[in-house]
Specification:
By secondary structure, the chain is α+β, with helices and mostly antiparallel strands. The chain is built from 4 helices and 6 strands, in the order αββββαββαα. Helix content is 58%, strand content 16%. Responsible for the release of ribosomes from messenger RNA at the termination of protein biosynthesis. May increase the efficiency of translation by recycling ribosomes from one round of translation to another.
């Protein structure tokens, strides 16, 4: 493996870490309703647990209300039960075959808990990025030790990897700041 390969795979993995971080941020609840809020809910479907989105259509009715429309009539009660028993604090109500899920406004205390959760997710993503930097630098050091690269190449590589790391950490900081602002907006 060459230094260029190491840099490329490191940057690819860092991009994947950012993508995973964005997904995790999307699961953190804000004051507004979003269809992604219910992604983590599992429903029993013919003896196995499946995500709610595989047995029902989830959409927004307005900024504070979600609608869940099961594809099979017998799934309505199971979907409603799964939403109620999730730890999201939601209380769905059934209107025929449509389930309305009003999203209550969050208290100030709950908003602060959510911003802490967002910061913890950000710290986890930063740790993942730093670990990738360390792995890349270790791989380059091994190439130098095996005399497949020079020490000048190692210094240049470490500098390049540090720039990529700094760019990804700055992106994480921007994402978490935007999420905190979204959570704290009343």
């Amino acid at each position: 493996m060459t230094i260029a390969d190491i840099k490329k795979t490191t940057e690819t993995k860092m991009d994947q870490s950012i993508t995973a971080f964005k997904n995790n941020l999307g699961k953190i609840r804000t004051g507004r309703a979003s269809a992604g809020m219910l992604d983590s809910i599992q429903v029993e479907y013919y003896g196995s647990m499946v995500p709610l989105t595989q047995v029902a259509n989830v959409s927004l009715l307005d900024s504070r209300t979600l609608s869940v429309q099961p594809w099979e009539k017998n799934m309505g009660a199971k979907c409603e039960k799964a939403i109620r028993e999730s730890n999201l604090g939601l209380n769905p109500s059934s209107l025929g075959d449509l389930i309305r899920v009003p999203v209550p406004p969050m208290s100030e205390e709950r908003r602060k808990e959510m911003t802490k959760l967002a910061r913890n997710e950000a710290e986890g993503a930063k740790i993942a990025i730093r670990n990738l930097r360390r792995d890349a630098n270790d791989s380059v050091k091994k190439l130098v030790k095996d005399k497949l690269a020079s020490e000048d190449d190692q210094k240049r590589s470490e500098s390049d990897v540090q720039k990529v790391t700094d760019r990804h950490i700055a992106e994480i900081d921007q994402l978490v700041a935007a999420k905190e602002q979204e959570i704290m907006a009343v």
